[in-house]
Structure formats: C-alpha cells, structure tokens
Amino acid sequence: MADVEMEIDQPAAADAPKANSDTRTQSNAVAVRSIEGWIILVSNVHEEASEEDIQDKFGEYGEIKNLHMNLDRRTGYVKGYALIEYPTLEEARAAIDGANESKLLDQVVSVDFAFVRPPPGAGQKAARGGRGGAAKGGRARSKSPGANDD
Fold this sequence. Notes:
single chain, alpha+beta, 5-stranded antiparallel β-sheet, two-stranded antiparallel ribbon, 7 strands, flat
C-alpha cells in the first residue's frame, strides 16, 4: 500500500486571477455575495423612475431576483438609488459593465456592487480601534492643568 503513488491536484492558478478580477469593483475592492445572490447598487436614479423602468433597463442583463427602490416618505419620489439582486455573478457583472455610466430617464446612472470587502491596506487604521495618540499618528493631547513638565 505504501508503494502506491497518489495523484495530487494542481492548483488552478490560471482560473484564480480571472475569478478574482470578476469580483473587483471600480475602486478595486472585492465584491461580496449576499446570502441569496449578488446585489448591485444603482445610484443617481431619476426621482420619477418606476420599478418598470429599472426592470426594463436591467432585465436585459439577466434574471432580476429582487428589486428595491426606496421612496421618500414626504414626496413619494425615488430617493435616488436602487438595489438589484441577480442570482449569478455573471449576470451582476454584465449589468455593471453594460449599464454603468449609461442614461436612464435622461440621467446618467452609476452601477457597482453593493457589498464589498475593502482593498488591502484600506481601513487598517480604523480596524485597530482605540483612540490613537501622538505616537500612533493621532492628534497630540494637551496637558492637564497643573501638570508638571517632568
């Protein structure tokens, strides 16, 4: 039994960069899948846009699993953004690539992934927590009244 040579799968290095680049946003952050699908954020949506307008524009890129448009309570108009959920990454990526910087009711909309993990190195300072201090790059504190200059 010790004489049997086992086959070891080679790492899929050729596929890894492609999959990784598919989930990159325009700011180079990594997109994260929600529990049920891939959610994209459409911003600068015209205030008089309807769900049907959004469905018509983004339905051509794939099956829309869920569509949510917040309305202003006072005016009843769209607040300016919409969340669209696609079941697959390919459909979400097609919608982002195809509809970003395109017109919807005479307004140019921006489209990108809604949930992202920040790029490496971004947010490291905030992730540490604490108050900082002069030694850590924070602001210097003033001395308490009556403190000696020891």
